[in-house]
């Protein structure tokens, strides 16, 4: 009897999935997409305008009319799609130009475009490590780096977040042969704190490991010309041979890249299955990303304004902390506020309250963050102004629970 759960093969499949979904709901980890009818920082959601503090569009470029125009112009010139993988016939002049610009911007010999950061991490780690090799991670590295290591079949090791001594001990204890990679987010995606890249580079050097930095959240935001955490910390390409960056965050478009030596990029084009067997990104998108890089270069005031907003938020948010909430240390646009005891129920109640006040912040729960550290992931953007930040602070002041009210879910 088709359609009755548990009787047909399709019904059995659904029954198994429904059990998992019910469990997800019971644990308050059920997630839902929201359909926006307008983006930017003043989003439209369920027919109402809300002031958003949850995107990764740190420079406010994703809805910049100049990028929309560049994308339209790119589509008129090059068409909407690339039509093939890069090695067949999908590699077009804007792709080549963009790779050149990204290499120059990050101070590296070459760069290679990928469709997404998730794919780039898989594409690079699978070439640099495999069975019998060791990949050492910060415990809070992005999920795509962990998944990439597992898919590569390499041994996955994790050290306590930001604990360089633990990283050193871990590498020192690795027995036998095999290649060694030390991998870290540049800016941690859910904490906003930066890796100590100089320390990691020393450790990698001392233990014959190659350092890989995924700077998805630092590029466009940190450093003199926005070239990211490596520029901000004065790190050279020799110290960090593999840099991964994404284009869907501060750059306001979509896609990712790996930057490094001629040989690294050459090897990826020969051996990276995640890069070889996929359609090359749209050339119109590459054309738009070139325009985004122009804006990042020509409008440093965006970064300066963002930095001023971050300073203002942190100074004023001090009044909110204590029993009610804990603001984690972060000098980047990612400002994590752990609510009460860090449980899911309290977080969701606060997020709901903020929404009633016309504000929208990301409510991040396990497994994206460790259990007991569910948080508001407040992200600031150059498109915000000081009044926006004050509105958020006022609402937080009213909505944060006193610790006694915290339900223990
Ligand atoms: C967002 C993110 C990615 C994934 O990039 P996409 O282009 O969104 O697939 C990879 N690494 C880190 C650290 C990220 O924050």
Automatic annotation (TrEMBL):
InterPro entries reported in the protein's UniProt record: Aminotrans_II_pyridoxalP_BS, Aminotransferase_I/II_large, AON_synthase_class-II, AONS_Archaea/Proteobacteria, AONS_Proteobacteria, PyrdxlP-dep_Trfase, PyrdxlP-dep_Trfase_major, PyrdxlP-dep_Trfase_small
Entry keyword set: Acyltransferase, Biotin biosynthesis, Pyridoxal phosphate, Transferase
Name used for this protein in its record: 8-amino-7-oxononanoate synthase
Binding site for pyridoxal 5'-phosphate: 117-118, 189, 217, 246
Molecular function terms from GO: 8-amino-7-oxononanoate synthase activity
Modified residues (N6-(pyridoxal phosphate)lysine): 249
Domain of life: Bacteria
Native source species: Kushneria aurantia
């Amino acid at each position: 009897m088709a359609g009755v759960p548990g009787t047909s093969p399709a019904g059995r499949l659904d029954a198994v999935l429904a059990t998992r979904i019910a469990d997800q709901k019971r644990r308050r980890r059920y997630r839902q997409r929201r359909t926006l009818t307008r983006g930017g920082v003043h989003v439209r959601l369920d027919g109402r305008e809300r002031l958003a503090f949850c995107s990764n569009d740190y420079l406010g470029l994703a809805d910049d009319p100049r990028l929309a125009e560049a994308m339209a112009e790119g589509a008129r010139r090059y068409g909407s799609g690339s039509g093939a993988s890069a090695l067949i016939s999908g590699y077009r002049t804007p792709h080549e130009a963009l790779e050149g610009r990204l290499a120059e911007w990050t101070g590296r010999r070459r760069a290679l475009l990928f469709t997404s950061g998730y794919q780039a991490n898989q594409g690079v780690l699978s070439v640099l490590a495999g069975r019998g090799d060791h990949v050492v991670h910060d415990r809070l590295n992005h999920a795509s780096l962990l998944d990439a290591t597992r898919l590569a079949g390499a041994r996955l090791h994790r050290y306590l977040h930001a604990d360089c001594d633990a990283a050193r001990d871990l590498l020192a204890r690795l027995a036998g042969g095999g290649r060694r990679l030390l991998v870290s987010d540049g800016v941690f995606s859910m904490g906003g704190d930066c890796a100590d890249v100089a320390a990691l580079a020393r450790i990698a050097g001392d233990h014959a490991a190659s350092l890989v930095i995924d700077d998805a959240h630092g590029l466009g935001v940190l450093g003199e010309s926005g070239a990211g955490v490596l520029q901000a910390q004065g790190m050279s390409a020799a110290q960090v041979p593999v840099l991964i960056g994404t284009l869907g965050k501060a750059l306001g478009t979509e896609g990712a890249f790996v930057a490094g030596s001629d040989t690294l990029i050459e090897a990826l084009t020969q051996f990276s299955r995640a890069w070889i067997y996929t359609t090359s990104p749209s050339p119109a998108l590459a054309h738009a990303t070139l325009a985004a890089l122009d804006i990042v270069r020509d409008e440093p005031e965006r970064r300066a304004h963002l930095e001023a907003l971050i300073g203002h938020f942190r100074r004023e948010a001090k009044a909110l902390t204590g029993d009610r909430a804990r603001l984690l240390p972060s000098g980047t646009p990612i400002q994590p506020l752990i609510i009460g005891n860090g449980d899911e129920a309290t977080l969701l109640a606060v997020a709901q309250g903020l929404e009633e006040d016309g504000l929208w912040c990301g409510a991040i729960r396990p497994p994206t963050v460790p259990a007991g550290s569910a948080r508001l992931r407040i992200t600031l953007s150059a498109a915000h102004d000081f009044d926006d930040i004050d509105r958020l602070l006022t609402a937080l002041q009213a909505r944060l629970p006193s610790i006694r009210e915290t339900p223990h879910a």
